[in-house]
Specification:
Elements (H helix, E strand, L loop, with lengths): L1 H25 L14 E5 L2 E5 L3 E3 L1 E5 L8 E5 L5 E3 L4 E4 L3 E9 L5 E9 L5 E4 L3 E5 L3 E3 L2 E4 L8 E5 L5 E3 L4 E4 L3 E9 L5 E9 L8 E6 L4 E4 L7 E3 L2 E4 L2 E4 L8 E6 L5 E6 L7 E10 L13 E12 L6 E2 L2 E2 L1 E5 L6 E9 L4 E9 L4 E4 L2 E10 L6 E2 L12 E10 L2 E4 L14 E10 L17 E4 L10 E4 L1
Parallel strand pairs: 2-9, 11-18, 19-25
Antiparallel strand pairs: 1-4, 3-7, 5-8, 6-7, 8-9, 10-13, 12-16, 14-17, 15-16, 17-18, 20-23, 21-22, 22-23, 24-25, 26-27, 26-39, 26-40, 27-30, 28-29, 30-31, 31-32, 32-36, 33-34, 34-35, 34-38, 36-37, 37-40, 38-39
C-alpha cells in the first residue's frame, strides 16, 4: 500500500511540473513600453460658489487632454474654519467668509481654484420648552430656547420680562419669582428678531404655622400669605382669601393702620405710611425771637412762646432725594415766602419715622421783593447762653450744610429736643438748638452775615419756654 501511495504522489508532482513549463511557453516574459501623457491644463467646476453654513457641494476637476494619463488630484482649502474639502472634492461650508479651494494634478504641474463664499445661515424661528410655567416667590425656573435651523449662524438671544415686579429673567433664561401675579417672559433672537413667549405665574407659599405679624409698608397695594383658614374676610381696605391677606393702595393722604385676626391663631397688623402722607398744614411750636423782621401773622419784635402755622408741600421739579435722603419736601411759613427743605426717613423694619430740617448756606433763595434768605442752625456753645447764630465754621469745608432730625412720637407729632440729639459735624461742643434765618440783598451765600453773634433776622429756638422737655415740635 505504501508503494502505491508513493507512485501516486510522484505522478502528481510530474503533472504539476509539466503545467509549469507549459505556462512559461504560453506567456513569455517581455518588456512593454509605457506611454505617459502629461496634463497640459486643469479646470474646476464651478469656479465660484455661494453656500450656507452646513451645506455640501462636490467640485469637479477636469484635465486636458482628456486622455491624459494622470487623473489623480490633491485638494486643499485656504481656511478650514470657513470651508473644508476632502480627497474627492467634496466641500463642506462652516462659518461665514471666503475660502479658496485649490485642486492640483498628481504631478504638481497644473492647478485650478474655486472661491467658496459662505453666507450666514439666517434664523427662521425660535421656540421655548414651556409656554406656561408656575414658580413660587424667590424661587426660579429656567426656560430653554431652541433656535431654528440647527445650523443657524447667529443663535444668540435676549430675554425680557414685561412685569419685572412680578418675575425677572436673566441672560440665560432663568426666571425668578418676585411677587404674586403673572408676567410674560419673551425670548428674542438677535438675528431676525424672532420671538417666543412663556406666561409665568408667580404663586405664594402659604405658611403652615400661625403667625403674629406687625408690618409697615408703603402706600402701594400689597399682600402677605398667612395661615388664616378657609373663611374670607373684608375690613375696609384689608382683605383675606385663600391664604393671602391683601391691602388696597393708600390714597387717604395720611398714614393708616388696621388689624385682622383669624380662627387659626394668626393675626396681622398692617401700617401704610409714605413720605407724601406728611404733606399738609402743621403747627410748629417753639420760642420765637424776631426783633428785625415780621414773621407772617406775628407783629414785628415778637418774642416768647409762639405757635406758627407751616405747610409741607411737594418740591416741584426737584429730585425725590435731598443729600441722599428720600421723601424731600418744602416747608413754608417760617419767613416771608422762603421755604426750607425737609425730608422724611422711614425705616420700615424698625417701624420709625424721622423728619429732617435741612440747613444749607451754599445757596439762598428769593424770599420777597429782592430780599434773599438762608436757613442756618442756631447753635449753643460750650456753656448755656453762649449762642452762635451764624457760626464761622458753618459754610466752610464740610460744614456748609447740616441736618436737624426730629423724632416722631406718633404719626401726627415730630419733636426736636436740644441737648439730646444733634451736634454739628466737625465740632465737639456746638449743639443745634434752633433755626436761625439770615437775609441779604444778594443771592450770593457769601453775602449773608457771618461769624458768631453777629446778626439774625428770626430765630425759632428749641428751648421753648425755657424748658428742654418741650423743644421744637410739629403737630398736624
Amino acid at each position: 500500500m505504501r508503494a502505491r501511495y508513493h507512485h501516486i504522489l510522484l505522478g502528481l508532482f510530474s503533472i504539476a511540473a509539466a503545467l509549469s513549463l507549459a505556462s512559461c511557453d504560453i506567456y513569455p516574459q517581455s518588456e512593454q513600453a509605457v506611454i505617459i501623457t502629461p496634463p497640459s491644463g486643469l479646470t474646476v467646476s464651478p469656479a465660484t460658489v455661494e453656500l450656507f453654513g452646513g451645506d455640501f457641494l462636490e467640485l469637479t476637476a477636469s484635465v486636458t487632454p482628456a486622455e491624459g494619463t494622470s487623473k489623480y488630484f490633491h485638494w486643499t482649502t485656504s481656511d478650514k474654519s470657513i470651508a473644508t474639502v476632502d480627497n474627492f472634492g467634496l466641500v463642506e461650508a462652516f462659518s461665514p467668509g471666503k475660502a479658496t479651494i485649490t485642486v492640483t494634478t498628481d504631478d504638481g504641474t497644473q492647478k485650478a481654484t474655486c472661491v467658496v463664499t459662505v453666507k450666514p445661515t439666517p434664523v427662521s424661528g425660535v421656540s421655548l420648552d414651556k409656554t406656561e410655567a408656575t414658580v413660587y416667590e424667590t424661587e426660579s425656573v429656567t426656560l430653554v430656547a431652541t433656535v431654528a435651523p440647527e445650523k443657524a449662524t447667529d443663535k444668540t438671544v435676549k430675554w425680557t420680562s414685561d412685569n419685572p415686579e412680578v418675575a425677572t429673567v436673566d441672560k440665560d433664561g432663568k426666571v425668578t419669582g418676585v411677587s404674586k401675579g403673572t408676567a410674560n417672559i419673551t425670548v428674542i433672537t438677535n438675528d431676525g428678531g424672532k420671538q417666543a413667549t412663556c406666561k409665568v405665574t408667580v404663586a405664594v407659599r402659604i405658611p403652615t404655622e400661625p403667625e403674629q405679624l406687625d408690618l409697615w409698608r408703603n402706600d402701594k397695594a400689597g399682600y402677605r400669605a398667612i395661615l388664616g383658614g378657609d373663611a374670607a374676610q373684608d375690613d375696609d381696605w384689608l382683605h383675606y382669601a385663600d391664604g393671602v391677606v391683601t391691602w388696597d393702595e393708600n390714597t387717604s393722604g395720611s398714614p393708616r393702620t388696621k388689624e385682622m385676626t383669624f380662627p387659626t391663631g394668626s393675626t396681622i397688623k398692617v401700617t401704610q405710611v409714605a413720605g407724601k402722607d406728611f404733606v399738609g398744614t402743621w403747627t410748629m411750636q417753639s420760642r420765637l425771637f424776631n426783633p428785625n423782621a415780621a414773621v407772617p401773622g406775628k407783629p414785628k419784635g415778637t418774642t416768647g412762646a409762639d405757635k406758627s402755622t407751616v405747610t409741607i408741600s411737594a418740591i416741584s421739579g426737584d429730585p425725590e432725594t435731598l443729600d441722599g435722603h428720600e421723601n424731600a419736601f418744602e416747608l413754608s411759613g417760617l419767613y416771608l415766602a422762603a421755604t426750607m427743605k425737609v425730608a422724611f426717613e422711614i425705616d420700615y423694619d424698625a417701624k420709625t419715622v424721622k423728619m429732617g430740617l435741612f440747613f444749607d448756606k451754599r445757596s439762598t433763595q428769593l424770599a420777597k421783593d429782592g430780599v434773599y434768605c438762608a436757613y442756618v442752625p442756631e447753635l449753643e456753645g460750650s456753656k448755656w447762653g453762649s449762642y452762635n447764630f451764624a457760626p464761622s465754621t458753618f459754610g466752610k469745608d464740610d460744614c456748609n450744610y447740616e441736618w436737624m432730625w426730629c423724632s416722631m412720637e406718633d404719626f401726627k407729632t415730630f419733636r426736636y429736643l436740644p441737648h439730646s440729639q444733634n451736634i454739628i459735624r466737625g465740632t465737639s461742643n456746638l449743639m443745634l438748638i434752633g433755626i436761625s434765618i439770615q437775609v441779604s440783598t444778594s443771592a450770593d451765600p457769601s453775602s449773608l452775615p457771618g461769624g458768631n453773634n453777629t446778626s439774625y433776622n428770626t430765630i425759632y429756638q428749641a428751648n421753648y419756654n425755657g424748658s428742654d422737655t418741650e423743644g421744637l415740635s410739629f403737630h398736624k
